[in-house]
Design goal:
The complex is a heterotrimer. By secondary structure, chain A is an alpha+beta fold. Helix content of chain A is about 30%, strand content about 25%. In chain A, helix 1 runs parallel beside helix 4, helix 3 packs parallel to helix 4 and helix 5 crosses helix 8. In chain C, strand 2 and strand 3 form a beta hairpin. Classes of the chains: A alpha+beta, B alpha/beta, C alpha+beta.
Chain lengths: ~325, ~375, ~100
């Protein structure tokens, strides 16, 4: 089996071969293959710029892999600012001995994910490090997008806005947890990992009045809602029964004592929209397979500014806490 | 409904309409109470349900909860957490324990901090993984830091049984299994506690049987209802306790009859008796020394007992909580968390001074996170 | 304390003395060391605690509890309906614009 060797990162012939045979072949576009020191980009108007590094264990999981994650994650960060994803960089940190065939699968998966938004990888970098320096493979991507709708911000959520969740929550966190070594569990469960731009583009195209968008990645729904409540100084009142959780995710939560609201997502987002557009926004989202479960989950008030309140279906209320520390299974 | 589905066991006992209906029934029944019902839910699992579902908000004012000492990490005195840390710091050692223990601070450090410093500390999903780890690392000492009440004890016994049968010689046990009835006695014994009803732990009782609470109703003239952890179970259990009190009865009743019998799991009890025996005393954080309130390995298994084998590295001095901490008083129902001078200031979930702030099942921790505005 | 979860037995391995149990679609192996030999069978409902089956859930008992709640709720619904009808009958403003 062909493996990545230190020489592949040495800058010489092997590096060139890796770049041409693998990265250029799959990411091919006019800007990239010019192979200049920096990509020269044409943009119009305001741009959004973001970066994220990706590490996940295992690298391949049900519904995705680290490559899909690395493209979707950065593209989604742009989309959440109302920006059309245009250009990405990608940097690979590869552990010596990493199977070539796996690297190719990951690169293929990145290329496939790029097609969903039309974004291009226009520059990149490859480092190969000695065994033990990184855990198999880390990927960093940075991205630039053209702002298609200005003013989307977690700071400007208004009293009266309606909160919409794009789908059921917790899938990515539950899937990765399940796939980890030592956890002998299996279920019909896959990560929600997905490029969200087409759905955001539709919301903008339909002239929905959007206050804020955010994908509920690490820290899950609980973290996003708490960040919003704090950043905008508002109270988010959420109907617990409106939050959708699949049976399998619920099963994992029962098993380890987790809350689905704390689990990571990679293709699930929350939108704060003007009340008069709520129903329209939901129906726009539902046109997309990965948002077919979109639903209103709550609204914005001034009841307890900076806090998220969960309402139970039998009339009690509690604060939804920010997830703390590492997720450890409870026996208690 | 003619056939039971697995989902019914979850959703059926969390059904909002049923909770509302039971709240109405409790409201009606509570009108006949002569004095407020101050229920101690002994078990942290019940505390969790009560706070997570906000049950006090749908109950009448004359029903009050006193959150008990039933959280195995909360009641662990600091010196024993220091034991875990001292063991983890030994050379060629892998310390394994259940997830709950990792974050709890001892006197100076925590297992999470030690792990970051390079010690090999691993949270387990099941104790049986300890055996796997011991076999994979024959050159290392693998130490299982065992925690938990009666529910979790038989799993430790099963691990002991398997390790001995399979002649695994590098797996050691540090036993911190504690018992519910002596803790209840310790809280009630001085006659000051304001508790006049008990909700008995669900899963402890699955193992021990409800029989362990049999002496309580007479001894303290209190109703005892063993009930499940789902909100419908807790509400039904409260209703049963309210009715007992209103009718002047003090009896042992089982609400959680789908899983709890008087006898319990006899095979599990036998397995425990085979390896473990009562410890003459154990210091409970927040309560103090309680005789016969915990278990230890029988003398014939001393060669597996980490407390004996590695005695020279283990600190022996007891470490008290801060003297401003009033956990003991809170556990007796004589004070509410907010009455403590350090509550929410010097004592917070991130740096707990006392046991009740340690985990989400402790009374102070639950008040800190949920109560403030919502009551 | 003591998180234990209702699950359904999918298969039993007598050799290894383990069972595969299903918790809402998530399957996992659990030890039968605490159960009398032969007492756990496919389709049984059990409680799982840290990787072990700790008891069998009494199916009839669970059904009975749920049935009682359903009946009370149904009766309440019925009463509520008659109350609404009664209020409507007594409504003074009947026919008012």
């Amino acid at each position: 089996m062909k493996q990545v060797q230190l020489s592949h990162g040495g800058g010489g012939e092997e590096t060139n071969k890796l770049i041409h045979d693998l990265f250029y072949r799959h990411f091919k576009n006019d800007i990239l293959i010019k192979a200049e020191d920096a990509a020269v980009l044409q943009t119009e108007g305001k741009i959004a710029f973001t970066t994220d590094s990706f590490t996940v264990s295992p690298l391949f999981f049900e519904g995705g892999d680290i490559g899909k994650l690395a493209v979707a994650g950065t593209v989604n960060d742009l989309a959440m600012m109302g920006a059309k994803p245009l250009y990405l960089s990608s940097a690979f940190m590869i552990e010596e001995g990493f199977p070539f065939e796996e690297l190719e699968r990951i690169v293929e998966s990145m290329a496939a994910e790029l097609e969903k938004s039309g974004a291009k990888i226009v520059c990149g970098d490859t480092k190969v490090v000695p065994r033990g320096s990184v855990d198999k493979l880390f990927i960093n991507t940075a991205g630039i997008g053209q702002i298609m709708r200005e003013g989307i911000s977690s700071q400007t959520i208004h009293e009266g806005d309606v909160i919409i969740a794009s789908r059921d929550i917790g899938r990515h966190g539950a899937t990765v947890l399940m796939a980890r070594e030592g956890l002998e569990v299996s279920a019909d469960l896959g990560s929600d990992c997905e490029t969200l731009w087409p759905a955001v583009e539709a919301l903008i195209g339909d002239n929905i009045s959007i206050s804020a968008l955010r994908d509920a990645t690490r820290g899950g729904l609980a973290a996003v809602l708490n960040e919003w409540a704090e950043n905008s100084g508002v109270c988010l009142e959420i109907e617990e029964s409106a939050i959708r959780v699949s049976d399998e995710v619920q099963g994992i939560c029962e098993m380890f004592g987790f809350e689905a609201t704390d689990l990571a997502n990679e293709g699930t987002f929350v939108a704060a929209v003007a009340p008069m557009h709520a129903a329209f926004a939901v129906s726009t989202l539902q046109r997309f397979g990965f948002c077919s479960d979109a639903a209103v989950i709550g609204r914005v008030t001034q009841q307890y500014p900076g806090k998220v309140v969960l309402h139970s279906a039998f009339g009690s209320r509690r604060f939804l806490d920010l997830p703390k520390g590492e997720l450890l299974p409870r026996i208690c | 409904m003619s056939e039971l589905k697995l989902k019914d066991l979850y959703d059926g006992f969390r059904d909002p309409a049923t909770i509302r209906m039971l709240a109405a029934q409790i409201g009606e029944a509570a009108k006949a109470l002569h004095e407020p019902l101050r229920i101690m839910e002994v078990c942290g699992g019940h505390t969790h349900t009560i706070m997570k579902y906000g049950l006090p908000q749908v109950l009448p004012d004359n029903i009050d909860f006193i959150h008990g000492p039933g959280c195995p990490v909360c009641i662990m005195p600091k010196e024993r957490i220091d034991h875990a840390i001292a063991l983890a710091r030994m050379d060629d050692t892998i310390l394994v324990t259940l997830g709950d223990m990792i974050r709890v601070p001892g006197s100076q450090s925590s297992l999470a901090v030690e792990r970051a410093a390079g010690r090999d500390i691993r949270p387990l999903y099941t104790p049986m993984d300890a055996l796997k780890i011991a076999k994979e690392h024959p050159d290392k000492k693998v130490i299982f830091f065992a925690i938990g009440f009666e529910t979790t004890t038989p799993m430790t016994a099963a691990l002991l049984h398997a390790a001995i049968a399979q002649k695994v010689t590098n797996l050691y046990f540090h036993i911190n299994h504690v018992l519910v009835p002596p803790a209840i006695d310790a809280i009630m014994s001085d006659g000051q506690a304001k508790i006049n009803a008990f909700i008995g732990p669900s899963h402890v009782s699955v193992i021990t049987g409800a029989k362990i609470y049999a002496p309580l109703p007479q001894k303290y003239s209190t109703p005892v209802v063993v009930c499940g952890f789902e909100p419908v179970d807790v509400m039904q259990g409260i209703l049963m306790a309210v009715r007992q009190q209103a009718e002047g009865r003090a009896e042992l009743e089982i609400e959680y009859s789908r899983s709890v019998t008087m006898e319990g799991n006899v095979k599990a009890q036998q397995l425990i008796d085979m390896y473990l025996q009562p410890r003459s005393h154990f210091r409970w954080r927040g309560i103090g020394d309680i005789p016969d309130s915990a278990l230890e390995l029988k003398p014939e298994f001393a060669h597996l007992d980490a407390e004996k084998v590695f005695a020279e590295v283990l600190p022996t001095e007891p470490i008290d909580d801060h003297k401003l901490c009033i956990c003991g008083t809170i556990l007796k129902g004589l004070a509410k968390p907010m009455e403590c001078k350090v509550f929410g200031t010097a004592c917070t979930p991130n740096s707990p001074l006392g046991s009740c702030m340690v985990s989400s099942e402790g009374a102070c921790n639950a008040y800190y996170r949920y109560a403030g505005v919502l009551g | 304390m003591c998180l234990s979860i209702p699950s359904k037995v999918v298969s039993v391995d007598r050799e290894k003395n383990t069972a595969v149990v299903d918790t809402m679609g998530v399957k996992r192996e659990a030890g039968l060391d605490l159960m009398e030999e032969g007492s756990v069978n496919v389709d049984d409902y059990v409680l799982i605690h840290i990787g072990f089956v700790m008891n069998k859930i009494d199916e009839e008992d669970a059904l009975e509890s749920l049935k009682v709640y359903h009946e009370i709720l149904a009766k309440l619904d019925e009463e509520e309906r008659s109350r609404v009808v009664l209020e409507d009958d007594n409504c003074e403003n009947r026919g008012a614009p």
